[in-house]
Amino acid sequence: MDASEEWEQIYGKKFMEKAGVNPGDSVIDLGCNIGRYSMVLAQIVGDTGKVYAIDNDTTPLKKFEKRLKNIEYAEIIDVIHADRIPDTFEQESIDFVLLYDILHFLERDQRIEFYRNIYSVLKSVTGILSIHPKHTKDDDFPVWNFKDMTIKDVVTEVESFGGFLYEEKICDILWHNDELLGSCVYNFIKRTE
Fold it and tell me: Which residues in the chain come in under a pLDDT of 70?
C-alpha cells in the first residue's frame, strides 16, 4: 500500500472525523487539487451528504474527474472549476469548509474575500471552517504571502475578519505535497453575535 492509499483508507478518514466531518454533511474542499481530501470526505458524508471539490487549476481537476469514474461514491462529489466559492450555494447550507494549504497563495484582500464567501454559506452554530496554514515563517518552508506570517498571525487574521471564532487546533497525520506528515489544522466556528 502506497502513502496515498494509506491516506484514503486509513489516516484520512480518522483525521477528518476528528476534525468534525460527520455523515450527512455538506462539505466544500476549496483548493481540492486531485481530490485526496475529497475522496476521504465522500466516504464519511455518505449517500446523504455532499462534497464540493473546488479548484481553479484544470490539470489536477481533470485527473480527479478521470479517477472518479472508477469510484463507487463518485456521485457524492461535485467537481467545480472555480477560483472561489461559486455564488450558486445557498446561504447557511454548508457544514464544513476546508482551506488546506492554499491561503499562502493569496494576497490578504483575496483571503478576506474567501472568509466572506465562506461566512455566507457556512451554517450558524454547527458549521466549521478548517484551515491548514502551511508555509508560514514558523513552518518548515515559508513562502509567498505567508513568508512573513506566523500561524498565530493567520489565526488572528481569520478572527479579525469578524466572522469567525477560533475553536480548536487538531493535530494528526495529514496529506501534504504527496506525502503523509504530522501537522495541525485550526478550526473556527461562525460568529453569530
Answer: none
